[in-house]
What we know:
It is a single chain. The protein is of the alpha/beta class. The chain has 3 domains: 1-65, no CATH class; 181-389 and 397-408, no CATH class; 426-539, no CATH class. 46% of the residues lie in helices and 15% in strands. The longest helix has 29 residues, at 265-293. Zinc ion (ZN) binds next to loops.
Amino acid sequence: MAVTVFPASTLRCGNAVLRTGRLDGQDVILVQGACDVPLQGRPLEVGEQFAYPATYENMLIWERKLAPQARLQALNGAGFRAGFGAGNRIVVAAGEAARLRVPSALGGWEGIFRAMVRSAVPFWFLQQSIVRELIPEGVHAEDHPGMGHTGGYGPREFLRAGLFAYASLGGYTRSALPIGADADHAIVTGHDEQSLNASLALNKLALAEARDYTKFTVDTSHLFGFPARPGEADRERLHSTFAGRTFRVPNILPGQEGFSFAFEPEDVETLAAKYWTACRVHCELYHHIAGLRGSQPFDYELSLDETHSPTPPRELLFYLVTLHEVLGLPAGSVASAGPNLGFVKRESFRGDLQRLRRQVNACASILAHFGAMLSVHSADGAWASEGKGPGVDAILQEATGGQAELKVADVYQELLWDVLASSPHPNERALFLEAWQRCLEAAAALATAYREHLGSLSPQQFPAALQSEPVRAQLAAQLGPRGLQHVLAAAPYGLAVFQLAAALLEEARRAEPNPRSELFRRLMFLVYRPLRPAIFEELCQESWDRLGSEIEHATTMRLQGMGWLAQ
Ligand SMILES: [Zn+2]
């Protein structure tokens, strides 16, 4: 039997000593001596120790009963006004440890952890979208080809793997601050009642699987402008809430000028038409989560940023007033919100920094007025060494007084490709070249679909077109099953991804393979999952170490930029 022990995990519980480890490629909890707390499952005898499977239930027993202190917390609810969301997408999930060339690898969390122990603010150590990166266990994968692109595991497995890594790295023994687990971006979509209800059912299922997370982020941006109007009674409540009122909001920065907003009846009509359904859904899912959590506290985040332009601060205020005063969401139930600040995913910010400052300061002030924190979504720039672009973190820090969350994710996956592409070992470089080739293939499928079928459609027509059997049959005939698969997997990201593939394909075909090329960075999610087993089989200790250092460095740089390094 091959045993790997993670010494930093060592806990004492009564007369027993407990450690995490890996036994023949399975995550286990090793117990030496008598332990009162019953772990589940049948243990294997390993010398003087008993090895219990590190299942979901057993990792929660570790967290809640065996550890000297439970570490998972609703961080905002506990009073923290700042934090770092680290969306690791590398992750060694159940069954994958057996493939590891380096049996002690913890899939990217090593570097995040090393940065975290130097941080003055707590981390959401776990953070992935529960209906985009993750795929709930209760859905049929074939029905959702774009879902689960980081590995095909669900919210429960992600939490299990994250707690196992956290324990193995010494989280329960060496870490001063608690951690959060963010069931990130539940994404509600729909163009009519039927599609909206289907999406709500899917998201409720995902949320139920994420019930042991401590934070829930719900995105309703796709419902802005949904064709449903408030009923008569609600309209009256809206108008009486806003009529003749001036909303005064102090600046989050002491001594600086505050804000005031007023809404004419026509504004109320226009904004209600835009936001009513989104607000209603935010309310409904809040109550759904409250039901799942029972007496356990949780943080609730509104994601409002998947729009084409920055959120006007007055509309953010309108949204929050409608939620609380019209729809009756209890005061303090919104822990944070991510409005559109003018950032684009995976692009560094190149706009006007003073305008950014005004936007960030206004949004953070409005949120603080409701007891909520500004959450900065899409905080990844073009690559790790850039952060979100020169000067951006300093603006975010200054304009919020450091009361914010940064949500970072893509950068960690990009560093993995960097490490492979620049590896001294040919077998590791070959993996990147394979990914590059597959990416070009995927891009070719997207480009053809765009030119011949999708390019002339409006953004409204586009989702329905890909649901239609005749269109799918045509695409399958032309692109083959794998091409169709790429098209369907890219579809949730909208027409822009297809347009990008069409625009960049020829140039990418002529270029040297490069993990930082625009095309690769934007499409690698389509080819990542099937290559994971090979990556785990090839990656050597030296490369894992390099990846860990790169991740640590990228994270530390952002902490430093935000003034969040403990010293
Ligand atoms: Zn968002």
